[in-house]
């Protein structure tokens, strides 16, 4: 806790004049001196951060990402984040800018060193699309949804998919996983921002539970599991019932 006292109004030290004009002490330091130190720290941090932002701007320019600007503090995503411009209008302006400059169908914006949004020419989405190496044609305007359950239970990518085998995701085996076949958090530029936090939270929770309790399957649980086909997330029909037993220390 800071201690605030009244300073001595007299003295012969060179710094006495400064202290006499401001007799408030905080932890033994004159208030004015502390303010100078605080301002110096803030200025140093601001200069360092601005240098970093400028470097990021140069980084994306080297990659030929169009329509970026070194705007403080969040690159050129600052306006929609602070609601200075309606996001729909803002994205349309970006698209119009691409068309005017003739810079092709894509561009991007950055937040620090990571791309925050990639713009694709809307005209591309107005035509039918034929899936490569197939006779399947997706007509324009069709809404599609990727079945993560089907994809992640496909024996072509995961042999014996119903088997609980954590070793599938070991450091050694992870290299053999076909990209985009395991997407519990999505993938690409729109991957879930909370992925790392969610994984960490799950590990901490499991560690705390398994340290203190033993778990076994209750007879109310239907085996083998039957997945709920009408759920947006992975849920079993009837739920999973567990019995718990306190671990004796």
UniProtKB/TrEMBL annotation:
PROSITE patterns: CYTOCHROME_P450
Location (main, coarse): endoplasmic reticulum
Pfam families: p450
Membrane topology classification: Peripheral membrane protein
Gene Ontology molecular function: heme binding; iron ion binding; monooxygenase activity; oxidoreductase activity, acting on paired donors, with incorporation or reduction of molecular oxygen
Superkingdom assignment: Eukaryota
Alphabetic keyword roster: Endoplasmic reticulum, Heme, Iron, Membrane, Metal-binding, Microsome, Monooxygenase, Oxidoreductase, Transmembrane, Transmembrane helix
Protein name as it appears in the record: Cytochrome P450
Organism the protein comes from: Ignelater luminosus
């Amino acid at each position: 806790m800071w201690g605030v006292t009244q300073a001595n109004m007299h003295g012969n030290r060179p710094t006495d004049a400064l202290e006499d004009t401001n007799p408030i002490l905080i932890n033994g330091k004159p208030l004015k001196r502390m303010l100078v130190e605080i301002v110096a720290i803030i200025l140093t941090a601001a200069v360092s951060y601005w240098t970093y932002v400028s470097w990021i701007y140069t980084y994306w320019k080297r990659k030929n990402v169009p329509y970026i600007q070194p705007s403080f503090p969040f690159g050129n995503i600052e306006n929609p984040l602070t609601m200075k411009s309606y996001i729909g209008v803002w994205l349309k302006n970006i698209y119009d800018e691409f068309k005017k400059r003739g810079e092709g169908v894509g561009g991007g914006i950055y937040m620090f060193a990571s791309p925050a949004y990639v713009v694709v020419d809307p005209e591309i989405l107005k035509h039918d699309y034929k899936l490569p190496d197939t006779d399947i044609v997706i007509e324009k305007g069709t809404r599609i949804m990727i079945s993560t359950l089907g994809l992640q239970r496909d024996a072509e990518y995961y042999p014996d998919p119903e088997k609980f085998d954590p070793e599938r995701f070991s450091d050694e085996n992870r290299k053999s996983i076909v990209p985009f076949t395991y997407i519990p958090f999505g993938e690409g530029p729109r991957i879930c921002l909370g992925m790392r936090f969610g994984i960490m939270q799950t590990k901490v929770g499991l560690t705390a539970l398994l340290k203190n309790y033993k778990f076994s399957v209750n007879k109310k649980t239907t085996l083998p599991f039957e997945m709920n086909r009408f759920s947006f997330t992975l849920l079993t029909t009837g739920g999973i019932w567990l019995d718990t037993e306190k671990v004796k220390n």
